[in-house]
Amino acid sequence: MSKKQFYLVREDMLTDAMQRTLEAKALLSAGKVRKINEAVHRVGLSRSAFYKYKDGIFPFHAIAKERIMTFSINLADRSGTLSQLLNIVADTGANILTINQTIPLQGRANITLSVDTAPIEIDINELFERMEALESVERVELVGSGS
């Protein structure tokens, strides 16, 4: 599994496509446009570039205020797997808010886990690493965040 890292980067260091993606996201969140197609057209960005970067680039103020993170986790269907995963999250000091698990199909289950990270005692990168280090974890993705 690839290790996910998070960085704080000055705006002038971002590629043009990344900067335009941020502009398009700002238009959408402010309600100045209703559709992605309108936003990318207004900022002069292709839809494919927008979709490439939209889930991976955020303004710093948006991340700094985020407390609740939602993860999508693919697990192998083995006894005790979910319990091990929840223990890893709880051991960081994070507060588990919601857990949704699909019925295991073909030996795999998907878990959606919402976590309050305000009380967390480690770096978010470390949390990702610990979850991904579980032998039964096949994939961990951050699918959303909010306050």
Provide an overview of this structure.
The structure is a single chain. With 147 residues, the protein is an alpha+beta fold. It has six helices and four strands. It has helices at 16-30, 36-43, 47-53, 60-64, 81-91, 124-133, and strands at residues 68-76, 95-101, 108-116, 137-146. It folds into two domains: 12-57; 64-146, ACT domain (Alpha-Beta Plaits). It is elongated and about 50 Å long.
Keywords:
147 residues, alpha+beta, four-stranded antiparallel sheet, 6 helices, UPF0735_ACT_dom-cont, ACT_dom, ACT-like_dom_sf
Radius of gyration: 17 Å
Tell me the name of the CATH homologous superfamily of the largest domain: ACT domain
Return the string of H and E elements.
HHHHEHEEHE
Please give the largest β-sheet. 4 strands, antiparallel
CATH hierarchy class name of the largest domain:
Alpha Beta
Mean pLDDT across all residues, rounded?
87
How many β strands by DSSP? Answer: 4
Separation, N- and C-terminal Cα atoms: 28 Å
Total tally of structural domains: 2
Shape: elongated
Secondary-structure arrangement, i.e. CATH architecture of the largest domain: 2-Layer Sandwich
Pfam family, one: ACT
Family: Belongs to the UPF0735 family.
Protein name: UPF0735 ACT domain-containing protein ABC1543
Organism: Shouchella clausii (strain KSM-K16)
